[in-house]
Amino acid sequence: MFVLAGIFSQSETEGSNITLACRNEGKVVWEKGADGGRSTILTAEDGEITQRLRPDPENRYSVLTDLSLVIRSVSLSDSGIYYCNSAPAVNLTVNPAPPAEASPSFFTKGFFMAIAVLVGVLLIMLALFVQRCCFKRKAARATKTDNVYEIVNDEAATTQPASSPPKEYEAIYVLAGDPDVIKLGLKNQSAASPLKPQAQSTENNPSEPLYSSIQLPRPL
User: Fold this and answer.
1) For the chain, where are the alpha helices, taking DSSP H only?
2) pLDDT tens digits for 63-121?
3) Is the Cα dihedral 47, 48, 52, 56 positive or negative?
4) Is 162 exposed, middle or buried (0-12, 13-18, 19+ CB in 10 A)?
5) How are strands ordered across the β-sheet holding 80-84?
6) CA–CA distance from 172 to each of 194, 205, 215 (Å)?
7) Which residues pair with 170 in a beta bridge?
């Protein structure tokens, strides 16, 4: 607030509440200069408004106990010279309010939400991919271990001592003195190998064994 030739110069911002003061003796008439003339706003006495002379549906004008004029939510049209008891008191200048910071639009919020969802999906897919790779690696290790066991078992099977070759002849025991058996034995022995001593009849030599053995070829 500045004083210029007995008038206070006051600058305020649009939308704010302001107070215009003046010297008085307990009674005041507030007026505002307009179109080269003046229009009365109100009259007040002993700290109370006694008469409103300008339409004020929003009750923007009031007075304090010292009869200072209060204007709520000033607008650009409130700029001008205010008179207190017919004397110029305040030269009021109302400046436009600075532009409010633009809040994020719906599309901007939606864009950031879409980005957040996309990042979340990518993270989930990455986690599933890593888990799948770990599972495949474990499965490969398990398969490799099974193959090693199979190879070891195969090698163990191949290193086992070979079974003894089959016998070419198999000894059988027959009743000594049986003519048919003796003929069969003689025939086979003469064709394949030297004969063992022929079995003797037990009738002439009771001390000889009751059974004798002959060699028969093993079937192939």
Assistant:
1) 106-158, 179-192
2) 999 999 999 999 999 999 999 999 999 999 999 999 877 666 666 777 888 899 999 99
3) positive
4) exposed
5) 2-4, 7-13, 87-95, 80-84, 27-34, 37-45, 48-52
6) 16, 22, 7
7) 216
